TrEMBL record:
Glycoside hydrolase family domain sequence ranges: 96-368
Family: Belongs to the glycosyl hydrolase 5 (cellulase A) family.
Gene3D superfamilies referenced in this protein's UniProt entry, alphabetically: Glycosidases
Record organism: Kwoniella dejecticola CBS 10117
A single BP term in Gene Ontology: glucan catabolic process
Origin: domain of life: Eukaryota
Protein name as it appears in the record: Cytoplasmic protein
Alphabetical keyword list: Glycosidase, Hydrolase
Higher taxonomy: Eukaryota, Fungi, Dikarya, Basidiomycota, Agaricomycotina
GO MF term list: glucan endo-1,6-beta-glucosidase activity
Length: 503
């Protein structure tokens, strides 16, 4: 039986609900919750639904000029057949198996509001895509099947609203080629986006392997965006459980939105908000003048310090939703192809070290391209060139340790903790360190032994916060000033289990 089987009935109800009832309960901490709280190591399934010509040229064959966006394809000849043929063939069984076998544990699927018009015709009202209902009405059924298939393979799914009504940025991947940010211009655009996000959240929140919903991809930053994030999060929280992860783009202002996310984690312990940062080093003149080795060195230097500070501000509720192996041709000069790959290899290695150390996950952009070789942007090509490692899944689980190992590790850690603080003025309550250690160890093993494959805790602040509240409720003891002591034990329990139980 596939991991998705017990949730399959949710996808085949004959009539969708539009009243968005507040009926779903949070997923309790346990195996089902592992998908959302583990370290995410994934790929983007770019240009499957939200199209980009540079990734898949063939689907634009009948598009009107300038021929860069979904709008141009939908306006062209035979658009319904062209799109449905593409949706049905871009990702197949061999692709899902490749993703899983390389150690990736999740996929990020970019979609747009018009892909929801089959069950939700109102989403097109007053928008640029209103005439195209008949063209996109079959998309949502295919998106549901994609989510289902990912579950069969043990993969988590992050659904990303890549294109909002009016376009939230001036890139064609937001759906329009006109190069204008029209998202804020009309009430109908905001209404469509609100409807789309509420629909998606209510449909997806009960499926454990859906790891979250991204509210907007790369929105242009302005004085309205933070207020929109706040009100939209509150609106969605009124209809779905507060533990359903909502991802927000940093809008290229990482420090500010790291603080914003950190405030949510601080003030609403049950509220799961995640910051998405996109990291590319191939577009600016400054980046073009540096080699792959120089970029790698910078990522291990000041940039690492900056990213750690931002991740800490976000309580490590931060991911890199897009990154790549791509460098501008100017970065290489006139070196041979083998040297170019060597530079990309070091660049990728530095990025992976950075993400593993300081974020809760990352998704490579993109899984594949339609034509030609591109080891910078295609994960499949980068893997063939050994630029991406052959296994990206992190450490492997050895199996449960022999009896008595946990107790030995816990006693050693407890004695070191109490001994240190006894000679440094004491601590609030040394008795809570061991329960924290024990819980951290057990939870780490829960992740490591997960049936979808070896996992490790990624969103540790959120998971640990919920476990701490359980401990307080069950023990009848409010930790107060001793909170840090229990959490210190929890983190040491996790670290010890990884050291002992993995290779």
């Amino acid at each position: 039986m596939g991991l998705f089987d017990k949730f399959k009935d949710q996808f085949h109800s004959s009539s969708p609900s539009y009243d968005f009832p507040s009926a779903h309960q949070p997923i309790p901490l346990g195996p089902n919750a592992v998908f959302r709280y583990r370290q995410q190591r994934g790929v983007n399934l770019g240009s499957w639904f939200s199209l980009e010509r540079w990734i898949c040229e063939s689907v634009f064959r009948n598009a009107i000029q300038p021929g860069q966006s979904d709008f141009d394809v939908a306006s062209g000849r035979d658009a319904k057949r062209v799109l449905e043929e593409h949706w049905d063939t871009w990702i197949g069984d061999d692709d899902w198996k490749w993703i899983r076998d390389k150690g990736f544990n999740s996929v990020r699927i970019p979609i747009s509001y018009y892909h929801l018009c089959g069950p939700l015709p109102e989403v097109l009202k007053g928008t640029d895509f209103e005439p195209f209902h008949h063209i996109f009405e079959g998309a949502w059924g295919r998106i549901k099947r994609a989510i289902e298939t990912a579950g069969y393979h043990g993969l988590g799914v992050l659904i990303d609203l890549h294109g909002a009504a009016g376009a939230q940025n001036n890139d064609a991947h937001a759906g329009m080629s006109k190069g204008k940010v029209g998202f804020w211009d009309k009430h109908s655009n905001l209404a469509s986006t609100s409807l789309a996000l509420r629909f998606l959240a209510s449909e997806l929140c009960h499926i454990p392997h859906v790891v979250g919903l991204e509210l907007l991809n790369e929105p242009a930053n302005n004085s309205k965006l933070q207020g929109w994030y706040k009100s939209t999060i509150e609106e969605i929280r009124s209809i779905v459980p507060s533990d359903f992860p909502l991802y927000i783009s940093d809008a290229w202002d990482t420090g500010h939105y790291a603080w914003f996310v950190g405030q949510h984690v601080d003030t609403q312990a049950q509220n799961s908000v995640v910051l998405d940062h996109h990291l590319y080093r191939c577009f600016t003149d400054q980046d073009k003048n540096k080699s792959g080795y120089q970029h790698a060195s910078e990522l291990r230097g000041q940039f690492q310090s900056d990213l750690k500070g931002q991740s800490d501000a976000a309580k490590r509720s931060m991911v890199v939703g897009e990154w790549s192996a791509s460098l501008d041709p100017h970065s290489f000069g006139h070196v041979p192809d083998g040297e170019k790959d060597a530079q990309r290899r070091e660049f990728v290695k530095a990025q992976l070290e950075l993400f593993e150390a300081h974020t809760a996950g990352y998704w490579f952009w993109t899984y594949k391209k339609g034509d030609g070789w591109d080891a910078g942007w295609s994960a499949r090509d980068a893997s063939r060139a050994e630029i991406l490692p052959s296994w990206v899944g992190g450490k492997m689980f050895k199996g449960p340790p022999p009896q008595g190992v946990k107790e030995h590790e816990q006693n050693q850690a407890h004695n070191a903790h109490t001994g240190y603080w006894a000679s440094h003025g004491g601590s609030p309550d040394p008795t809570v360190f061991a329960p924290g250690f024990s819980q951290g160890w057990d939870d780490s093993l829960l992740f490591l032994s997960h049936p979808s494959g070896t996992s490790q805790i990624g969103f540790i602040s959120q998971w640990m916060g919920k476990r701490r509240m359980e401990y307080e409720a069950h023990s009848g003891k409010k930790l107060g000033k001793a909170t840090w002591e229990w959490e210190h034990g929890f983190k040491q329990g996790v670290e010890a289990s990884l050291r002992v139980c993995t290779y």
